[in-house]
Input
Amino acid sequence: MSARTLLVRGMLVGVAAGLLAYLFATAFGESPVNSAIAFEAAHTPPGDHDPELVSRTVQSTLGLAAAVVVYGAALGGIVALVFAVVYGRLGRLAARPTALLVAAAGFVAVELVPFLIYPANPPAVGSSETIGRRTALYFTMIGITVAAGIGATLLGRNLTARLGTWNAALIAAATFVAVVAAGAALLPAVDEVPADFPATVLWRFRLASVGTQLVLWTTIGLLFGALTERGERRRTGALRSAPPG
Amino acid sequence: MADAALSTPTATPTPAPIPLRHLLPWAVFGLLLAALAIYFVGAEQGATSLIGGHWVHEFTHDGRHLLGFPCH
Output
């Protein structure tokens, strides 16, 4: 098993996961996005509309697919690299559970926790003057959760010999929650939802947003693990049946 | 997952880790590629802009919103 094989496999799995996530986003995300755009149009003074460079049809099909697939390939590559570091270094966990564990941890640290602190917003929510600040806060939050996740994993690994896997994992999880909660408490809140924005549209949009990410990460974790375990079995099988020399 | 947990230690030997030395160049390459891809999907022509205009922003518009990146 080489790092190169794993990276290529991860990125291809990410493309497949991106296509599934695109279907999910189309089914559940486009309707709240369109409602939000209608809200935005109704609240913009006439004559104040920006010229459309990319039509809504392209944005909601080709644009959405390209964005989610490219993002999926990037995530797949990252999951594969983290898997390559972690595999064989977390006890005797096999390829499939290791891949699922990496993807689950990635989903929590890179998506879920940052989402809970700075949730995704549909069009019409958020003013363009604060985009720089909001982007900086969002990526800072991701930085905090990823650093806390890596730190907690190393801590848990060091404590396993003394306290056993269960207690070490509990302490690692508690440390992660404490660091992330402290970070979130220190960062300023973002409050830019227009007072009359429909709450149901916001809720449906945010649900579709986490759902799209969940489809992406779950598919990457399961598919990458299955393919890697199959590859490993073939390799060891080939080694046994044909002795080197 | 269940069969991996239940099978005997002899059936699942501890997997051999990939030496970090072999991993490093691929990790650097892969992470750079991923960072570039995520930047263009998530932030170009939003908070910062390398290429001028709004085309990338508008093309990735729906994906950017639904993937949770701050947009607009």
